[in-house]
Design a protein that fits this description.
Helix content is 50%, strand content 27%. The protein contains 11 helices and 14 strands. The strands form 4 sheets. A 5-stranded antiparallel beta sheet has the order 2-1-7-6-5, sandwiched between helices. Strands 9-10-8-13-14 form a 5-stranded mixed beta sheet, with helices on both faces. It starts with a helix and ends in a 6-residue tail after the last strand.
Length: 334
């Protein structure tokens, strides 16, 4: 009996030991399976990093480059050795969307992510636009271990956007703003004049004798004349002023930030003189002049459409008075 009990106890100990072995083997198999899954994911991640279409960078906790992929090398023309140890500021310059890279790093540290676009220059000196996305990667203690940067070259996309904007907002012949952009600039000009308590002059300009040039020399020469006069007019204005073509040989000029009307009148005198200079065209040299009407915000009107209508009326008065001159809008007296 004692021998039987000993045998049973041994059997029970053996079964317990076997169960522990089985349990350990199952845990081992589970660990091995998890390791295989992790290794598989790492291989996929490494493949995406090295062979993906987007540019990738890995930065350390101090925002210095530790690795870049082939796509970024192809995109920028910079090698891994050139980028290694450099910061984004070293590669792109001090500012991105008006922010310093220090402030960008602070945003990423606070929110774990940042995205923006930046003007770039590749190794060959060619300008480009890069869309950059930065994400922070934390260690097990929730501290930033490194950053992953994804870079897309959006130069062609931005170029296409500018082309669409050019078509939508600018005159296809002269390159001057069209009526749609004029209306927007006029609203902005009124807002700025109200805020700064300054004057905004709205000039309505029509070329004298343009129809005769078109009739006698053809539309091709007429188009060249319009383009040349558009350049001359723009050359007489300041950087924030607007010269828009609204149709035919009619243009509207917005001259803002004035304190005295005589300052505007000096600009108008230069415009009339520049426009009246001869223009050499393929079929001969011509000379045209301009009639200009002016309305002033806030002295003459408050609304954009009123200002344009008043300047238009004043322009016709200038034509009736002999052309090659300007008139300011005057209200009819009773």
């Amino acid at each position: 009996v004692i021998g039987l009990i000993g045998l049973l106890m041994g059997l029970l100990r053996y079964r317990a030991l076997w169960r522990r072995v089985e349990s350990n083997e199952q845990r081992l198999q589970s660990l091995l399976s998890e390791r295989k899954r992790i290794e598989s994911r790492l291989r996929v991640a490494a493949s995406v990093f090295e062979h993906g279409y987007e540019g990738f960078m890995v930065l350390d906790a101090h925002f210095r480059v530790t690795d870049i992929n082939h796509a970024y090398q192809r995109m920028s023309g910079f090698s891994k050795s050139h980028c290694a140890g450099r910061t984004l500021e070293d590669l792109y310059g001090p500012l991105v969307l008006g922010q310093t890279f220090d402030s960008v790093q602070q945003i990423v540290a606070a929110t774990m992510h940042w995205q923006g676009e930046i003007e770039a220059m590749d190794a060959g000196g060619v300008n480009a636009v890069h869309r950059i996305s930065i994400s922070a990667v934390l260690d097990e203690r929730k501290r930033i271990q490194h950053y992953i940067v994804v870079i897309s070259d959006v130069t062609q996309e931005k170029s296409h956007e500018r082309e669409l904007e050019q078509i939508a907002l600018y005159d296809s012949l002269t390159g001057l703003p069209n009526r749609r952009l004029l209306n927007d600039r006029l609203a902005q000009g009124i807002h700025a004049a109200t805020r700064q308590k300054t004057l905004l002059a709205v000039l309505y300009l029509d070329l004298d004798g343009f129809k005769q040039v078109n009739d006698l020399m053809g539309h091709a020469d007429g188009d060249l004349l319009l383009c040349e006069q558009g350049r001359r007019i723009r050359a007489q204005l300041r950087g924030d002023d607007t010269a828009a073509r609204i149709g035919g040989d009619e243009m509207v000029l917005l001259l803002g930030d004035w304190n005295e009307l005589h300052q505007v009148e000096a600009t108008i005198a230069r415009l009339l003189e520049a426009i009246a200079r001869p223009v050499a065209l393929p079929r001969g040299t011509v000379r045209v002049t301009a009639s200009i009407g002016m309305s002033v915000y806030p002295l003459d009107a408050q609304l954009p459409e009123e200002l344009l209508e008043q300047a238009d009326q004043a322009m016709y008065e200038a034509k009736q008075c002999g052309k090659n001159q300007y008139r300011r809008f005057r209200r009819a007296t009773k």
